[in-house]
Write a structure and sequence with these properties.
By secondary structure, the chain is of the alpha/beta class. The protein is 40% helix and 14% strand. It has 15 helices and twelve strands. The protein has an eight-stranded mixed β-sheet, sandwiched between helices. Strands 1-2 form a two-stranded antiparallel sheet. It has a two-stranded antiparallel ribbon with strand order 6-7. It is globular and about 70 Å long.
Amino acid sequence: MDILKKGSTGPQVSLLQLALNRSGTGQLKKDGIFGINTENALKRFQAQYGLSPDGICGKLTHQALMPWYTGFLSVKVQSGDSLYSLSRRFGASLQAVLTANPQISPKNLQPGSSLVIPLPFELVPTDIDYCSELIGFCVTGLKARYPFLKTGKIGSSTMGKPLWSLMIGEGRNRVAYNGSHHANEWITTPVLLKFTEDFSTAYASDGEIYGEKASEIFNYSTICIIPAVNPDGIDLVTGALTSGDFYMKARRLSLDYPDYPFPSGWKANIAGTDLNLQYPAGWEQAKKNKYAQGIVSPAPADFVGLYPLSAVESRAMYDFTLSFDPALILAYHTQGNVIYWKYSDYEPYNSRRIAQLFSTISGYLVENTPYSSAFAGYKDWFIQDFNRPGYTIEAGLGKNPLPISDFPEIYERNLGILTLGAIVT
């Protein structure tokens, strides 16, 4: 996290405001603007936690705020502590503490042992713009709260940021969901993270999600979620990246393609390659199509790259998919309220039926991909090489990047797709 102070702006400031609100030291509008109210709230937090109350959020203050970024505390058990007393002290539910600490004996806590205490708020924010740090905090916090989740990385971005993965379930039916191939479609990342949280909560409480028993899905399927294929691009679009060599190179590239507003029109990875035009499924045709449109060099969008899988992010997705071998994939994009389900003449078994089911529960139309965009996508390659159902979900309607205020409707319309996608094959 960057040093934040009065005058700072962007998604990291929104995240700071969220953390201060969660800590009880602020009642701030999460507007991403570090003004006098944020400064005063930060000073209160710093004083409360023994830090110099200078109103500047540097390394030590970020460290102190970490529980409110990640949603949990690590606590050493003292003599006389009980689960009830610890839960009450931090406002956590007993069930949440038991879920986060499956190894403990509730009636025999050992002094000196460590416990994870989930803090009493939902972890995944759905009302602020995202940045790569927030994605990492969500992954860390979800793993701590729900240790049955398996988390890891499928690779790293051009700038070296983790390409996170979250895996839930123990079943033989493997499905894979991904979001944010395109930078200015970043709202798909909180959709996938929120689904992970809601599914995990339902499973931990022996409850349901979208009317389905979470434990039955957990036992039948293994769901792997890649929440953000393009974290560098997300940071550029949302304003977390505003300086440095990578930013300046992207800024220069945008000058060659003035039809794309900067940075809001940026879809590509930070090096100017469109990650969803990188897969070996009609790549030469995609190149021909995009070159005819004048996209012949690294650009904010629609540059196919020097060759298939030349971008490290697309290569990581390709390698992951080969290794995971899913029965079905969902690739989340925006916008259009539409489901694309075919590639060329390929029509995998059951794929039309599943597409119609997804359409019924979401209200999205089922369509064929327009010819100008019909090649070299992740979904295209998956259908071609695996001959299994694969879908591009174009969520929401409007102009990219869709505002976070659109999240509730998008999530409501896609919860059924995300849930049933794990059991329809």
